[in-house]
Design a protein that fits this description.
The protein has two domains: about 220 residues, no CATH class; about 120 residues, CBS-domain. The longest helix is centred in the N-terminal third of the chain and has 28 residues. It is built from 13 helices and nine strands. It is an alpha/beta fold. It is globular.
Length: about 375
């Protein structure tokens, strides 16, 4: 279990809380709003129309992600945050049990969009809507929301990651086959679908279709790689992968001292411990350099350290920890033991190296077919 709060997604600012779940928007969303406003302005409508329609689209995305979170809660799965990007939304959750729970959670998002679309259909004649248009009349907005929700529904049924359809397919396959085989099959289906979509986009000279195909292809590849990593970490404990030889800092030590360690050791991140060896925080390379320019070299490390580091036990399940962090840690994870304080540290590099070593050990241990003997 993670003992401290998982850090928020970098470069995302919080815009609200729903059901206790922080809703955050990545800063690149601002660029999309401006871009859409420019498109509507070029088409004869006002800049404001594009801004409002984009905000309504992201409201639909937020409803989609909340649908995932509500069903996840029914299965005891915590949603850490919902982050909205220009290309869609992501619900960061703790580890999701495979099989029926994963299937139900994956289906929930598209179902929310379908229900919203069905609710809008009888409202169209009541609002006097006859056709879609780029304005802010109630009927035009209803038409836009109808097409937006139908688009999100069908887009997320594409059987490939990062779409929900990929998770639906993997969960459905895992009901009848091992999880690793289900993940590999889903990855192959997703990549095949992306290739066909890309060929269609090139033939039709549609850049947007080609872009979607690229996103689907790389999403399928990334998810397959992530699942292979999770499979390699199954049954492993944090103590097996943690670094045990590393430099520590005290809160009152200077930034100058931390920079010396940064130059003289391979570390980029340093645990900050109190006089009893307990975790007080962590300080990263970027925080040190920013603090140097802002506060000077003689300022104390405590002025620039992150005060709520993720702290885990050496016996914590490594696969569950990585799943809760959505793959790899964005910053150092401190490993603390009762009565001993900080005894280890995990980083993205140390976990990747551990996975690479495990893969090589498995390759060495795999039985090899002896060469055929020639006749005499």
């Amino acid at each position: 279990m993670i003992d401290s709060r998982t850090p928020a997604t970098p470069w995302a600012f919080q815009v609200g809380v729903i059901l206790g779940i922080p809703i955050r928007v990545h800063w690149t969303f601002v660029l999309l709003v401006v871009w859409m406003g420019g498109i509507t302005a070029n088409q004869g409508a006002s800049f404001l129309v594009g801004v409002i329609l984009t905000l309504l689209l992201f409201a639909c995305l937020a409803c989609h992600e909340v649908g995932h979170a509500v069903v996840a809660r029914r299965f005891g799965v915590q949603t850490l945050e919902i982050v909205l990007y220009p290309v869609g939304g992501i619900s960061r959750t703790a580890a999701i049990p495979p099989g029926w729970p994963e299937l139900a959670i994956a289906v929930a998002g598209p179902i929310v969009n379908l229900l919203l679309a069905l609710l809008l259909i009888p409202l169209l004649p009541l609002l006097g809507a006859t056709s879609p248009s780029l304005d802010l009349e109630p009927g035009a907005i209803a038409y836009f929301l109808l097409f937006a929700n139908l688009g999100l529904f069908f887009l997320n049924l594409i059987p490939a990651f990062p779409m929900d359809g990929g998770r639906i397919l993997r969960a459905a396959l895992s009901l009848g086959m091992p999880a690793d085989r289900a993940a590999r099959a889903t990855g192959m289906v997703g990549q095949g679908f992306a290739l066909m979509l890309g060929i269609l986009g090139i033939a039709a000279a549609q850049f947007l279709i080609v872009l979607i195909a690229l996103l689907v292809y790389f999403g399928a590849s990334q998810e397959a790689s992530l699942h292979r990593r999770q499979g390699a970490l199954q049954g492993r404990r944090v103590r097996e992968a943690m670094m045990t030889r590393f430099e520590r800092l005290a809160p009152q030590q200077s930034i100058r001292r931390a920079l010396q360690l940064l130059l003289n050791t391979p570390q980029n991140d340093f645990p900050v411990v109190d006089a009893w060896g307990r975790a007080a925080g962590v300080v990263t390379r970027s925080a040190l350099l920013a603090g140097l320019g802002r506060l000077g070299p003689d300022a104390a490390v405590l002025e620039v350290m992150h005060r709520s580091p993720i702290t885990v036990s050496p016996e914590a399940d490594l696969a569950e920890l990585m799943a809760g962090l959505q793959g790899a840690p964005a910053g150092p994870i401190l490993v603390a033991e009762e009565g001993k304080g900080v005894v280890g540290m995990l980083t993205a590099e140390s976990v990747s190296q551990f996975v690479a070593v495990l893969g090589q050990l498995q390759e060495v241990a795999r039985p090899r077919t002896p060469p055929a003997q020639g006749g005499s």
